[in-house]
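Can anyone check this?
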Amino acid sequence: MEAANRGAFEANCKSIGLNIGLPNEQIPNAFITPGLCFKFNYFALRKIHFVMRSVAAVFFPGGFGTLDELFELLTLC
């Protein structure tokens, strides 16, 4: 998701970041608008917020994480 945040940053637009708190693994990327960086403790809540705030979804071939997000989206809609 850093590419989307970076594109918005370079175009002087706001971008949102929904991060999960994992010990020693993930930190928010530097291109997220500071006031729009949200940190979640649970994957399920993060996925629900992705679905609530989205207008559309585009999925490209990926791994199990992509399939997990796709099926979660279909389940929540």
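Reply from J.R.: I decoded it. The chain has two domains: 1-41, 43-77.
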